[in-house]
Amino acid sequence: MIGYLVARPARDIIRLARQQLTLAWWEQRGQYSLFISPTVLDEIRRGDESVARRRLRVAEELPVLPITPEVDALADHLLRMGAVPLNAKNDAYHIAAASVHGMDLLVTWNQAHIANMVRMDAIREAVRQRCGSSPVIIRPGDLLEGDHAI
Fold first, then answer.
1. Is 34 helix (H, G, I), strand (E, B) or coil?
2. Contact at 8 Å (CB) between 95 and 123?
3. What is the pLDDT of residue 132?
4. pLDDT digits (tens, 9 = 90+) for 18-64
5. Half-sphere exposure of 23 (CA within 13 A, CB side)
6. Residue 126 within any structural domain of the chain
7. Got the DSSP string for 128-143?
8. Is 127 domain-assigned?
9. How far apart are CA 74 and CA 49, in angstroms?
10. 55, 6 in Cβ contact below 8 A?
11. CA–CA gap between residue 119 and residue 112 (Å, rounded)
């Protein structure tokens, strides 16, 4: 999501829409306490150095959820149960960090393995087995109010 905040306007209409929705949500973010997972920090450090620096400047204001043994165990459980594919270990850690640390929402554009309606029930069940409850997984555009609501 942070990548959409600092990227040049995309030519692809879907990416451009996500950029605009993310920017609109970011302007309304004051009603939320935001956190970031170490997994996301690792991801935003990658790629073009100047763009990575811009992403890190946005992220530096956000508290980081620590990776604990409980986060490790839940990420492993998500992978073993097939809620998250084995090749998406970082996504399992992102979900696990939000879940273990009691986040109400996990805001992401990752529809491949996280904000994916096909996987949602399996993710919730795997998290429930270990933590009791799962954060609501949602895309930034789904949180917009007013003229920007979709």
1. coil
2. yes
3. 84
4. 999 999 999 988 889 999 999 999 999 999 999 999 999 999 989 99
5. 12
6. yes
7. HHHHS--PEEE-GGGG
8. yes
9. 32
10. yes
11. 9
